[in-house]
Amino acid sequence: MPIALPYGSWPSPISAADVAQASPRLEGARFAGDEVWWGETVPSEGGRTTVRRRRVDGTTAELLPAPWNARSRVHEYGGGAWTAAGGELVFVEKTDQRVWAMTPGEAPRALTPADPTARYGGLVFQEDTLLAVREVHTGHGGPRRHIVSIPMDGTGEVRDLVGDSDFLAQPALSPGGSHLAWVAWDHPAMPWDRTQLRVGRLADGTVSEWTTAAGGATAPLQPAWLDAEDLVYVDDPTGRWNLRRLRLTADLLSEELAPADADTGGPLWSLGMRWHGLLDDGRVVAVRTDGSDEIVVVDPRAGTTGILDTPVVAGANIEDTAGTRVLVSGSSRWAPSGLWVVDVDAPEQAVSVRGDETPWGEEWMPVPRSVTYAGPHGDVHAFAYAPTNPDVVGPADERPPYVLFVHGGPTGHVGGGPSAKIAYLTSRGIGVLDVNYGGSSGYGRAYRERLLGQWGVVDVDDVVAAARGLAADGAADPERLAIAGGSAGGWTVLCALSRSDAFAAGISRYGVADLLRLAEDTHDFEAHYLDGMVGPLPEAEATYRERSPLSHLSGFTTPMLIEQGLEDEVVPPSQSEAVRDALAANGVPHAYLAFEGEGHGFRRAETIVATLEAEVSFLGQVLGFAPEGITPLDLE
Questions:
Q1: I want to staple 390 with a disulfide (CB 3.0 to 4.6 A). Which of 108, 138, 239, 363 is the partner?
Q2: Which of the residue ranges 82-86, 127-131, 356-360 would you say has the lowest mean pLDDT?
Q3: pLDDT tens, 272-303?
Q4: Which H, E and C letters describe 326-344, residue by residue?
Q5: Range scoring the smallest mean pLDDT among 27-31, 295-299, 309-313, 392-396
Q6: Predicted confidence (pLDDT) per residue in 88-134, tens digit
Q7: How far apart are CA 96 and CA 115, in angstroms?
């Protein structure tokens, strides 16, 4: 029989160290013959990205040994930093951004020359050819990018196949290698605003001529060849990213394959994103997102679509296909991160490769509840996670404290799958509301574009509306609502705390506090992102100043925990320090935690542990509960 204890004080078996180790951050996966290879960050090794293998007999081992670190910096966010190529591992080494190859058990060898100006990413191996996006920084103007082919023996010349645009992604060779398809876009657009699907003819090792096959006003993504004349890709002329087929006829006939009021596609923050894959028999396996995710199988010949029964409910990627098998990654109802091999003709025999377990039981994982609240700009979507502990319940006369999570991006998305961090909180009697404010993906273009020109307005209004809606439902204590977020989510936290009284506490992780500084310091990929989110400079300079939290320091009257990496080049420590100083000047309880060796986003296990424990202690002190087994954080 569960006992009754005050919310926030519940004993939990989930430690901060468990969270740091139990949520593997997967970085792609591939079939390699009869084996499965996957990339994974290792928090205990400073966030190094390794590659592991699952052998035929089910045993696993590390493939890429320390200190090798597979991480790309193309577009700054990287992605596609490794792939399988004819039994060899090909990867981009973080420290030099060169492409290396290794036969399992042997030492890596360089495939590209040493060049401190060059970066590689988006690696794909097709038609016995290694393709990549190469980004060259010369210090004169912006980076130059090309899709290139790289000889596997390391002795030949890296060859430029095509450029002709500010940004390039997702190259795909046709069977036989006669044509190349790829995605391109130019400033000021982001890849979820407007892109072009281009198709070019290869002659003498380069693209001799190309044409725009789709896009311009829409955002096509991820081309893949059904055969030498037919392409599958996704595009959103209807307001939703859906699968389409393109035939290389004179008029480039395009048709929908499986129309749905859901998205197959998303923001291309990383070059490794994949939302669909082709089976050998011509069927297509795809992700569909409308809040949460599902996996579908589309048969273009029969014109049928069926739901594939997989464990994945959020953050789904179609990593690779082979025969009738598909590699699917994402979150399940009981595991924050996992990788499965699923045979589309026998899904009940799905094999868990990685992450389909936790050191605690499924009974400790909260069940997501999809909720929608009315806001001043329209409906606001979110997922609510109630306090969940099989051994404890809250007092009958008490409502629980809740933390609103604000994702980054701001063009990002959270699905209905609990993370280890959410379970860390809910198992202690602290509820979580994960909010997809206006501007989030996963609900179509109109919802995503609600934020255009309104960053710092719509997102703030939406999180406040969600908080008040949650309290009005009776699910949360209206006097014990907190808000937490990092990067762009931290911006929303700072804006909400300086301009509203909806929250009793706030947690900002490397939050943006100065829009003008962000615009000055940001990298090329996001150089014009704020043009759409706020307005172009210098015309909108007054808006940048007015919206920035640093222009409203007197408004910081809510207790706050600030967490900052000292090597953060996106949001430098000076911004968080200015907020800290304002809190001190205003006499507001606060704590400032700065971490050596961390940049924009925390990867080290010791940092993850320190921040989780500090956040729970902070919430307890401000919201009035005593966390069990947590060292108190000193507040100033």
A1: 363
A2: 356-360
A3: 899 999 999 999 999 999 999 999 999 988 88
A4: EEEEEEECCCCCEEEEEEC
A5: 309-313
A6: 999 999 999 999 999 999 999 999 999 999 999 999 999 999 999 99
A7: 8
Helix (H, G, I), strand (E, B) or coil at 207: strand
Cα 94-98-100 angle, rounded to 5 deg? 95
Write the burial class of residue 418 (CB in 10 Å: 0-12 exposed, 13-18 middle, 19+ buried): buried
Right CATH for 378-623 from 3.40.50.1820, 1.10.260.30, 2.50.20.10, 2.60.120.620: 3.40.50.1820
Question: Strand ranges (DSSP E) for 151-220?
Answer: 159-162, 167-173, 179-185, 196-203, 206-215
Element (H, E) at 21: helix 16-22
Q: Which two tokens stand for residue 553?
A: 């320091």
Is residue 47 within 8 Å of 603, Cβ to Cβ? yes
Q: Where in the chain is the domain with CATH 3.40.50.1820?
A: 378-623
Domain 16-273 sits in CATH at 2.120.10.30
**Banded pLDDT at 23 (limits 50, 70, 90):** low
* 155 exposure class (CB count in 10 Å sphere: 0-12, 13-18, 19+): exposed
Predicted pLDDT of residue 147: 98
Q: Which two tokens stand for residue 187?
A: 């400033």
- Enumerate the CATH 2.120.10.30 domain ranges in the chain, comma separated: 16-273
Which residue shows structure tokens 């997809």?
Answer: 436
Type of residue numbered 405 = F
Residue 569 has pLDDT above 80, yes or no: no
Tokens representing 412 are 């990002």
Nearest CA to 326 among 281, 358, 261, 291? 281
CA dist., res. 433 & res. 414, Å (int) = 11
CA distance 41 to 24: 7
* Run of H or E residues at 611: helix 605-623
**Contact yes or no for 289/413 (Cβ under 8 A):** yes
End-to-end CA distance of the chain: 41
